[in-house]
Design a protein that fits this description.
Elements (H helix, E strand, L loop, with lengths): L5 E3 L23 E3 L18 E3 L3 E9 L2 E11 L5 E7 L4 E6 L7 E6 L4 E6 L2 E6 L6 E2 L6 E6 L5 E6 L6 E6 L5 E4 L8 E5 L2 E6 L2 E6 L4 E6 L12 E7 L2 E6 L2 E6 L7 E5 L4 E9 L4 E11 L4 E12 L6 E3 L6
Parallel strand pairs: 3-26
Antiparallel strand pairs: 1-3, 2-27, 4-5, 5-6, 6-7, 8-9, 9-10, 10-11, 12-13, 13-14, 14-15, 16-17, 17-18, 18-19, 20-21, 21-22, 22-23, 24-25, 25-26, 26-27
């Protein structure tokens, strides 16, 4: 059941954060439905000058990612249209169990999350960053001045990073967990569209290609070009994660995989379009599974667009797509 909540927004504003984690074989069973990806039909232009009216789902998925120590567990941030506000959940795939970690009563405006190998989960509240244990204990504020978004842990959790968006150009900040010392990065972004690949490397994708940033040098190189059409404002890239020596990234035109060792071998895993695409990518080597949020936009008439979001698992090659049935309270 969906509320008849209609609002006018730009289509590409319905995005989520990217999460990146690594681990390695234990295949959980997945309650949900398996389905092939059929042809993707581009959206028609809406009638009138105001654009589409959006019919939003009861439960909007804001972010999702694997527990880096257990590929059977996910952290999910969900905004409810039916009164509960925004909640951070832990979901166990095999048992189909959903447990609240944080609710609006503990932390307002819960945003993007990142689950570290140290067991702590980074989370934004407004424009400050907190950390919390997976059972909801020990909520701790890490930043205080505001303007901080898109937190990530380094692979070993020796550091965390985020983007600072106040007063001037956006920059990224890397903070050591042992010393508390922070470094400002101007050319190596730790942000919504990047993935912390190794302790000293960040990978992201934009109109220039697939890029690899060196945190110590605060410099980047182009690993290889992308095969997608020109996208000057980079608004059609929706997430990236890494597996072994490859990056898997999402564009409005499809889900791609690029070899980070030599920049060659960019391969289309799944074809998508503006009416159906993936965001919020993550990968668990433990299960060799990709996790993504699939966004669907279906015209109901010439001016109304039904918005749907689903959490999906798939194999590393994009096959075997399965929609997870999440038992959110109504």
């Amino acid at each position: 059941m969906r509320l008849p909540l209609i609002t006018v927004l730009p289509l590409m504003a319905v995005l989520t954060l990217t999460a990146c984690h690594k681990d390695g074989p234990n295949q959980p069973s997945c309650p949900g439905t398996s389905e092939p990806e059929g042809p993707c039909e581009s959206l028609p232009l809406p009638e009138g000058q105001l654009g589409w009216n959006y019919l939003l789902p009861n439960h909007k998925l804001r972010s999702a990612g694997f527990n880096p120590s257990n590929g059977d567990e996910l952290v999910i941030t969900e905004s409810s249209q039916v009164g509960q506000g925004t909640t951070m959940w832990k979901y166990q795939i095999s048992s189909h169990t959903l447990t609240a970690i944080l609710t609006v009563d503990e932390l307002s405006d819960i945003g993007g999350t990142a689950w570290g190998s140290n067991g702590w989960i980074l989370v934004t509240s407004g424009t400050n960053i907190f950390k919390v244990k997976a059972n909801g204990d020990s909520l701790t504020q890490l930043t205080f001045l505001g303007g901080n978004i898109s937190p990530q842990w380094s692979p070993s959790s020796a550091a965390f990073g985020y983007t600072y968006i106040n007063n001037g150009p956006w920059v990224s900040v890397r903070t050591s967990t042992s010393t508390g010392i922070s470094d400002t990065l101007y050319n190596t972004p730790i942000f919504q569209g990047s993935c912390w690949y190794t302790e000293n490397q960040v990978v992201w994708v934009n109109n220039l290609g697939v890029l690899l940033g060196d945190i110590a040098a605060d410099a980047w190189t182009i690993v290889g070009p992308t095969p997608v059409a020109s996208d000057p404002d980079n608004s059609n890239y929706f997430g990236i994660t890494t597996m072994e020596q490859s990056a898997v990234w999402s564009h409005v035109s499809g889900l791609y995989r690029t070899d980070l060792a030599n920049g060659t071998g960019t391969q289309l895993l799944l074809s998508t379009c503006d009416s159906r695409y993936f965001s919020g990518l993550d990968y668990s080597p433990q299960t060799d599974k990709l996790l993504a949020i699939r966004r669907r936009f279906t015209p109901q008439d010439s001016s109304t667009l039904l918005v749907e979001n689903e959490l999906v698992l798939m194999n590393a090659d994009g096959s075997g797509l399965q929609v997870l049935s999440l038992p959110f309270p109504e």
